[in-house]
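Narrative of activities, Objective 1.

The group set out to show that a structural description can be obtained from nothing but a protein's sequence at a throughput compatible with the screening campaign. Below is one input-output pair from the validation batch, recorded exactly as produced.
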Amino acid sequence: MKEILLKQKQILLFAFAGALSAVVEIGSFKIFSSQLPLIFFQETNYHGIHFPLSNIFSTSFGIITNYFLSIWFVFERGKHSKKKEFTYFMGVSFLSTLVSLSIFQIFFRFVFFNHIDVGFFVFSQEMLSKISAIILVSVLNYTVKKKVIFNG
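Output recorded for this entry:
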């Protein structure tokens, strides 16, 4: 019973850390996606890839935030050294980023065609795509980070 409660606590902490990381990622994406096109006019559509730099920069901010929240609040130290743990975390995060960028493109091109107005905020096509990609990749991240990186 204690093990089940600890596992549920860890999942809740992972969700909380993920939510905070997502806020950082989505917030920075909003800033980048509105400012980078002013400098790099092809940012909105670079050879068929929508918002590539905004996605890469914001995802990097989210990953770094998630790493520190994960080691401080979510997972216990595994059998790896700090250096190896960080390397594995970044490697998994890099692969997750590629998956996330691909999912973003799929949602942007084929799923979300209009914005959603919830009264106090308007979710644009790119924001809906970004949020959806984050949610889907989070499940993959938790499983891999728990089983491979932090061995728990």
